């Protein structure tokens, strides 16, 4: 059964996955274009700033792939009102676990592409003295970012349309309360605090923030 689910999810998400593999392989190669055996403090800072600028794209790529694969995993079930899933001789949790595992296997491809691209990129340039290449650590962090965001988006996508409405309604309520309290001079930042709770440690999306460096000190 897992093989069949893996095949169907591959059919649904193969185009964004192939683009993600190409982007993941090319991103490390593009990020080292300005890396050379430079000398001097300011030249080294400029080179590291260029590498860091490209690093912004790693969490964007990982989160985008996780969102697409997580949403597409349940798209067909939502269209069919979950009749197929309910007709299978397996519990609901087992079916969901099979779908989740199939997505993890598919997302391993862009992670491997980032790792191979990082190894190739650092092998084809001369790294200045005092700096080091971290292709394996970068790929491991990319994998963690991908799988954490995939788990989040997968869980959200698995819910019903009614549940999505509840979530959106709750967010709208928070927004209205914040607007009213700010208009009254209370200066409440509920959405900002919620966002910080997600992206600042120990928030689940803290892995997406910070410096993404293929080459660093």
Provide structural commentary.
With 217 residues, this protein is mostly helical. The chain has one domain. It is built from 8 helices and 2 strands, in the order αααααβαααβ. It has helices at 2-31, 41-55, 57-79, 83-87, 92-123, 135-158, 161-183, 190-199, and strands at 132-133, 215-216. It has a two-stranded antiparallel ribbon. Helix 3 (57-79) packs antiparallel against helix 5. The longest helix is centred in the middle third of the chain and has 32 residues, at 92-123. The mean pLDDT is 83.
Q: Tell me the distance between the termini.
A: 47 Å
| Tally of helical segments | 8
Mean pLDDT: 83
What general outline do the C-alpha atoms trace?
flat
Helix and strand element order: HHHHHEHHHE
Biggest sheet record: 2 strands, antiparallel
What structural category do the secondary elements indicate?
mainly alpha
The radius of gyration is 21 Å
Q: What is this structure, in a nutshell?
A:
This protein is mainly alpha-helical and 217 residues long. The protein is built from 8 helices and 2 strands.
Secondary-structure map with pairings?
Elements: H1 2-31, H2 41-55, H3 57-79, H4 83-87, H5 92-123, E1 132-133, H6 135-158, H7 161-183, H8 190-199, E2 215-216
Antiparallel strand pairs: 1-2
Key features?
mainly alpha
